[in-house]
Amino acid sequence: MGFFVLQKDKLNDFLASLEEYEVWAPVQNGTTTLFEVIKDFQNLSLDLKHQVLISKSAVFPQTESLFTFDRNAHPQATNLEKKKETIIFGIRPCDAQSFQLLDPVFEGDIPDPYYLNRRNNAILIGIACSEPFLNCFCTSVGGNPFSKEPLDLLFTELDSVFYIEVITEKGKKIIDKTSTLCAPASSDERKQKEQMAHTSESKIKRKIDLNHIPEKLTGIFEHPIWKKLAMKCIGCGICTYTCPTCYCFDIQDETRARKGRRVRVWDSCMFTEYTLHASGHNPRPTRGERLRNRIYHKFKFNIDNFGVVGCVGCGRCITLCPVNVDLIENLSAIKEVE
Amino acid sequence: MNIQKLRDEAKRALNRKEVKYLIGYQKGSYGFRVSPAFIESKEEVDRLIFSPLCALSLANYLMLEEKLPQSEDKKKAKATKIALFARGCDSRALNQIIAEKGIPRDELYIIGIPCKGVIDLKKIEARFPGVVDFAEVVEKNGNYIVTIKEQIFEVPKEELVADTCKVCQYPTPLIYNKLIGDNVEGYPANYDEIHSLEEKTLEEKWDFWQKEFDSCIRCYACKNSCPLCYCEGCVLDKLTPQWVRRSVDSSENLLFHITRTFHLAGRCISCGECERVCPMDIPLMKLNRKMEKEVKELFNYEAGKDPVSQTLLTTFNLEDPEDFIL
Q1: How close A119 comes to chain B (CA, Å)?
Q2: How far is B129 from chain A, CA to nearest CA, in Å?
Q3: CB pair distance less than 8 Å for B218 and A237
Q4: Percent of chain B having pLDDT more than 90?
Q5: Is residue B319 included in any domain, yes or no?
Q6: Which among B157, B179, B201 is the end of a domain?
Q7: What is the DSSP letter of B246?
């Protein structure tokens, strides 16, 4: 649909000219990077090495009020009013792909208006991964550091310009709005980008062959390997909270006197409380069952339910795990199980 | 550190019929990572390592709820003990847990390792980005010798050592069955960093912590990695009543961190594990060390010095200062 270039030093102008949108972008916060509505473009951080970035919070916030209630009045739905369009800027292709895994869950039997409102209202502008990170393994789960789906625009950082590929009509609209800043790309720039895409893929160091893993998992639910793999897990929520494809949530009522609100908050299958029944019984009483669930969900249940692997290979769970629980190592161990 | 000596000692420990298994360190899955090792038979001891990369605390694993399934031999032998490696800070954690009656002393077989400080993984991975191949580090004359794929780099220790280790008072284990290696001298008590925070105005302090807590994602890695956070019914997990809401916002995050800090007052042994594991780089040790300093000044008490003394919050002295009580 078209190829353009934007001078690198014009990036702030580009984003500033989109003021009619709510722009989400990676923002420097001390030593880490947050993904939030950007107020000051000086804080924009495209050094995506800081893997904590959780772009899913732009469509599925960690804490969200569903409705408020009052003893003397009807409940009032919250967060459903039509908002201005959102631009989610600076996400990596793998994170963009995670939206395709989240969509069918929230579209499900009963469509979730909170998620879908945000999702349908969002324009996704990705940045291609010319330098994959330490634990990137997107190519093992069907991804690619330059993949386009479901992005609207894909930026590639060349020497002095961003090379922009227009992927959808929504993306075209953005280019039209910023036409004074964007110029058509030359065939040289196009070649340069193609070359980059090629070398980037070869820079990915971590790989896993997923063939036969779903079948393997079918037969080893009760295998002692789960206990062994989970021995070092400390049961924190890092792997799930920083996972772009994890979507579990809890719903709670927060009340004060006669008023309150019902909130939805992220939950993690790595927490004991996650499966705790009101009776006190816990069907996943130990870390073994919990770690098993995380792997089954991504590499079996998601395939059974939606036909695709529930992982985009971003590597966050591996990089950020404080005790070296390594998904690739675990999957390899599972393949070895007799 | 003589690795062979360490492995021999581990072998001797595993030879004891009352030892169920041993918790040590082994190479991690890539790069600079080190993984905890759970070893049941003496044939596996060659996996064990100890290096400046061994930053994670093993003491925490004693208190996680399930233990390794035992082999039939060990079951028959009625094995009851867990053997583990303990650096100075870990040994203080063990002392504190034993003093609190969290675990009986005779259920532990402690292999003490005097520690010269460990590397901050975030620092070394920033210094040498993208290393997937196994890398090794040894300390030599105040420098770290880093070997990556047969390439050797020399980095001043100061640049990579964990901040917690720079103020460590007790690098040599205080409790052990066997001690391996020579004693390491600790640093004198140093609270300069805390003093500079104390000098800030109330408003500045509020802004500082507000900003730090706002980035908290409540993954509870700080709580779950803490060797002293082992209460079965943690107040933070309670649903009825729900003391701390699950909502992640300024107010609940503040409550979570304040609660965590208070529950560790007089108990934290400054291993720095909470700060090490925090994905958002929240400087949690500033809170813990502030508490440690208060406790020292008010009650002349330090946690985890020995396994028999009464713990701070279970004692009452008529002479205790009470001018802070309204």
Answers
A1: 22
A2: 8
A3: yes
A4: 83
A5: no
A6: B179
A7: S
Distances (CA, A) of B44 to A218, A232, B10, B25, B132: 30, 17, 10, 12, 24
Regarding whether B219 and B161 lie in a shared domain, the answer is: no
Mean pLDDT of B140-159: 96
Closest CB from A134, A273, A287 relative to B132: A134
- Give me the residue label for tokens 């049941």: B40
Residue ranges, chain A, pLDDT below 50 = none
Q: Which pLDDT value is given to residue B159? A: 97
Under 8 Å between Cβ of A66 and A262: yes
Q: Which of A30, A134, A272 sits opposite B281 (nearest CB)?
A: A30
User: What confidence score (pLDDT) does residue A53 get?
Assistant: 72
When pLDDT is averaged across residues B36-42 and rounded to a whole number, the result is: 94
Residue A80: its pLDDT value, please?
Answer: 87
Task: Tell me how many domains chain B contains.
Answer: 2
Out of A171, A202, A233, pick the residue that ends a domain. Answer: A202
- Same domain flag for B146 and B278: no
Helices (H), ranges, chain A: 11-16, 93-107, 113-120, 169-177, 187-202, 213-218, 225-230, 238-241, 287-296, 302-306, 316-320, 327-336
What is the ipTM metric for this complex? 0.93
SS3 A312: coil
A29 contacts B64? CB cut-off 8 A: no
**A34 to chain B: which residues are within 8 Å by CB?**
215
Range of the domain at A131: 3-202
